[in-house]
Design brief:
The protein has 232 residues and is mainly alpha-helical. The protein is 70% helix and 2% strand. The protein has 8 helices and 2 strands, in the order ββαααααααα. The radius of gyration is 18 Å and the shape is globular.
Length: 232
């Protein structure tokens, strides 16, 4: 049975923790499997295709449904779905986190570990004739993905690991599994570093909302920079 306080379940049972690990491993296996099965590298126009948005939305919906089933009885505030104690502090951590991951990405890029090049997701330029599918993909990448991935890793995952093994283990485990869930090899270090930054923001604010905001900001600016040519 799971501990209850004032009628609310406050921890995830070992079975639910195991289910979360199984979901995280399944996400990684699916990502690496689909990348390995692809005959060619993705073109730089994948975000201008309706099928990309549709398939990603369906996948995220399935992941979120399974995640809800795992976390259903647990008090949402335990999983980080609560306002941070101070929005001023949260905004400061979001900005500091953005700078930290930008610096880490630049360092790793200089070492030849470029996440964007391996993933092949960010467009190289703008195609006004296909603005509508790009907007749909922008919504998925900059809004849906951060919400689902943060609920998965810094929400349920962070709470599950922290309650059994502490915050340091929760930071490391969720960061690595977050990186693996993208199915990339060269980009794994920068993705794991991003996961660490997100976990630190989660721990310092005791809320899932600042990591969602940071993740969404990073993804949105990466897409905007890609299509506008900023930084290229």
């Amino acid at each position: 049975m799971e501990p209850v306080a004032l009628g609310r379940v406050t921890t995830l049972s070992p079975g639910r923790v195991a289910a979360w690990f199984a979901l995280a491993i399944a996400m990684a296996a699916l990502a690496y499997g689909s990348n390995a099965a692809a005959d060619t590298e993705p073109g730089d126009d994948v975000l201008f295709q309706w099928s990309t948005a549709a398939s990603a939305a369906v996948l995220y919906a399935i992941i979120f449904a399974v995640l809800l089933a795992i976390a259903r009885p647990v008090d949402p505030t335990v999983l980080g779905f609560r306002r941070p104690d101070s929005w001023g502090k949260a905004i400061g951590l979001i900005l500091a986190g953005f700078v930290a991951i930008a610096v880490a990405a630049a360092v790793l890029d200089a070492a030849g570990l470029n996440a964007g090049d391996e993933q092949g997701l960010v467009p190289k330029d703008w195609d006004p004739s296909r603005a509508a599918p790009f907007v749909a993909n922008f919504v998925v990448v900059a809004l849906v993905a951060p919400l689902v991935e943060e609920a998965m890793f810094r929400g349920v995952g962070f709470a599950a690991v922290r309650q059994h093994w502490g915050a340091l283990a929760a930071t490391a485990v969720t960061a690595v599994l977050f990186g693996l869930a993208h199915g990339l090899l060269v980009a794994l270090p920068v993705l794991a570093a991003f996961g660490v930054v997100l976990a630190v923001v989660r721990q310092r604010t005791d809320s899932i909302y600042p990591p969602i905001a940071l993740h969404a900001l990073f993804n949105a600016l990466a897409l905007i920079a890609g299509v506008t040519g900023v930084g290229s």
